[in-house]
Design goal:
single chain, 11 strands, mainly beta
């Protein structure tokens, strides 16, 4: 089993920035591709971004491209989500997830990921 613990969610003003962290334990972190998803009440979990094992490739949803950046530190077993220029459309519970296999056709599907954190709430309001 892999345990994932997100942190960093808080209230931020529109246009502001926030960095989320996700600390992993229980498995060899560097063997897993990592992703971030978000979810609001009544909606399905939405893909935000993903990063490959080595960090060499990253992928983003169109809605966050150019504003969000995913990165990872395999020495610290942590994946990060830097969120800039936050909009009122961005508030959600943000989840990190891990998968051993990552395919281009399925990286944005929640069922492609085996392990999930408990989520961290991001609120954007003035």
């Amino acid at each position: 089993q892999m345990q994932l613990v997100e942190s960093g969610g808080e209230l931020v003003q529109p246009g502001g920035s926030l960095r989320l962290s996700c600390a992993a334990s229980g498995r060899t972190f560097s063997s897993y591709h990592m992703g971030w998803f978000r979810q609001t009440p009544g909606k399905e979990r939405e893909f935000v971004t993903a990063i490959t094992r080595s960090g060499g490739n990253t992928y983003y949803a169109d809605s966050v491209k150019g504003r969000f950046t995913i990165s990872r530190d395999n020495a610290k077993n942590t994946v990060y989500l830097q969120m800039n220029s936050l909009k009122t459309a961005d508030p959600a519970v943000y989840y990190c997830a891990a998968t051993f296999y990552l395919t281009m056709s399925a990286m944005d599907h929640p069922h492609s990921y085996a392990y999930w954190g408990q989520g961290t709430q991001v609120t954007v309001a003035s």
